[in-house]
Amino acid sequence: MKDSTSCQAGPNVRTFETQGHNQTVALGHTLGRRLNQGLTLLLFGDLGSGKTAFAQGLARGLAVPASFTVTSPTYTLVNEYPGRIPFYHVDLYRLPKPVDPDEIGLGELFDEAGIVAVEWAGHLHPADRPLCRLELFFSVTGDTTRSIRIIAYGLDISDLLNDTDV
Description:
Blueprint: E1 11-19, H1 21-34, E2 39-45, H2 51-61, E3 78-81, E4 87-91, H3 106-110, E5 115-119, E6 133-140, E7 145-153, H4 157-161
Parallel strand pairs: 2-5, 2-6, 4-5
Antiparallel strand pairs: 1-7, 3-4, 6-7
Helix pairs in contact: 1-2
């Protein structure tokens, strides 16, 4: 089980502007390279806002082998990938709100030592979100541009995203 006693109070915020798919993937890759312990990332945003592109980069940063195609698990709910740290890619799009994480096994994943990226995290009740987490809000700002606001709860975001530019 993840140690929630090490969570610091208060959120930290950082916003990135990406200029296309490749920069969104690169941001995920950079973050994935810097993660060194289990963490839940909750991804919010409309269709086409960059959530899956970010998750693809995150997987590569976690050293998920290129032989694994990282796709959104819309119909399977969870895709598990081997890497430097196990990566669990979750998609709640097809489930009704609010989703009970324990009913679908998500509560167990939150306690794993892996990285859990949850697309359509708005389907979770706020009380069911782990104390230590990253919340990423993806917004379409143009044909190929995206704004990605990252809020770190219980973590110092500067440790993860220091010197990161896209």
